Amino acid sequence: MKRHRSKIFLGVAVGMAGLIALFEGQINPYYFQIIMYIGINIILASSLNLINGFAGQFSLGHAGFMSIGAYTSALITSSLKLSAGDASAYPLFLLALLGGGLVASVFGLLVGIPSLRLKGDYLAITTLGLGEIIRVVIQSLDFLGGARGFSGIAKISNFFWVYATVALLIYLISNMIGSTYGKGFLAVKDDEVAAEAIGIGGTRYKIIAFVMGAFFAGVAGGLYAHFVTYINPSQFGFLRSFEIVVMVVVGGMGSIIGVILAAVLLTILPEALRTIAQYRMVIYALLLIIIMISRPQGLFGARVKWKKLLRRGKIAPGDRV
After folding, report:
1. Domain count for the chain
2. Is residue 184 part of a domain?
3. What is the pLDDT of residues 146-176, one digit of tens each?
4. SS3 of residue 205 by DSSP
5. 3 Cβ neighbours under 8 A, 6+ residues apart
């Protein structure tokens, strides 16, 4: 039944994306830019939620995979001389996005095999360092534009491409979490030692989550590059990774809906506060602090599950879960 509902959701979402894409030229460019950034941030936050939320790891280098996908897809489309507005370029653009995602997933595998043997703070510091290494290496490569950035990228990304990817990713995550692999992720997250004891390979599941998360981060990077038409290594630094982590934590680690809502909220909020420019980042940070104090488990975190367990009588009010 859940799988049937997710198929309906996918079909409706893709149909709506196609319908709205027909009218995107009539939307105010500023508002349209925010809508596009919301979609890209949903992809980034949801892909990181696979690693941090469902597999129970703590990665701080997600922007590194985004940068690999952005530069790879931009290099492919520039080499093929694709131009904006050319419908015949869409199949090649799809290949460029897949290429960016695949290269990012390969790097995710290379990073994941050694680093995912670490846990907790050690893993977070390692992924943070690796994300910065990726950024510095890109900055030193002249054929990618180096420190001056990569310009002249065709503006091919539109509403349909971004939100069709959002719908596909949410569909895959919702189906995967209900599958055997999804149960393996949750088992490793809850107690890796116990999972290993019953034959669930913790490292294998963590690497699968890491590779999948890196793939969609790379696709998001490709969509971003072909929307802004100019990318620079400074756009993919630690602060970008931190923004994505905040979306996952505020939304609730392991909550699909919560992470989507947090991505929407934390994309709109800085823009809504732009009228008070000198105070907007202070207010933004203060609101984040208030959210995390009042809801430390995120918008849709564990407390919702506890209430369900209490209603079903599976735990007593004083029990720890």
Report:
1. 1
2. yes
3. 888 999 899 999 888 998 899 889 988 888 8
4. helix
5. 175, 178
